Amino acid sequence: MTQPGFFSAPRFDSLDEILSAIRSLTDDPLAGAGTNIVISRGNPDAKLLLIGEAPGPQENIKGKPFVGPAGQLLDKILQAANFDPERDVYITNSVFRMPPGDDGKSFRKPNDKEIEFYRPFVFEIIRAMNPLVILLTGNVACQSVLQKTGITSLRGKWIELDGRWLMPIFHPSYLLRNQSREPGSPKSLMWEDIREARRKYDELLSR
Ligand code: URA
Known about the structure:
By secondary structure, the chain is α/β, with parallel strands linked by helices. It is built from 8 helices and 6 strands.
């Protein structure tokens, strides 16, 4: 089977096919965890794709990504740059089930094996959706798509891949833990990054 990716042969013919293949997964590394498949929200025809980490407890219940506290902050950040989260953006994750914590109740970060398993599906979503701009929120999304981490130095810098423009940005959960608005704080850097994303998006759309 061809490993899907930016430059490989397509494995699915449409986004709907990809979504239904993900929904039917039974052999994924988190299948045994008993958590639900959570894939995407927003507009699949949008030119901006945002990729997060993994669903949390609220997302696991509601079946949509970024609907808990981090998601509420994410929507505010997008709206501050005049992006309508439902119309202008398609939002997905690097991992499509919540990884349960050791106590079976809370949740944890996805591990390497989980990120690698779901990666081909993330690439297939990118290929089928064909966005101009991709925002990677936090280290897990960077690991999935760029196969590298180090968000503090990666954030705010554009990477061009196969005609698409990717930018790593902080994860909104990180901003929830770091409330300072001082110059150089995560919140102020996020504001710079989302404004730059808006500038690039407008430039690419006007071509
Ligand atoms: N954090 C993420 O990265 N994704 C979600 O869907 C929710 C929280």
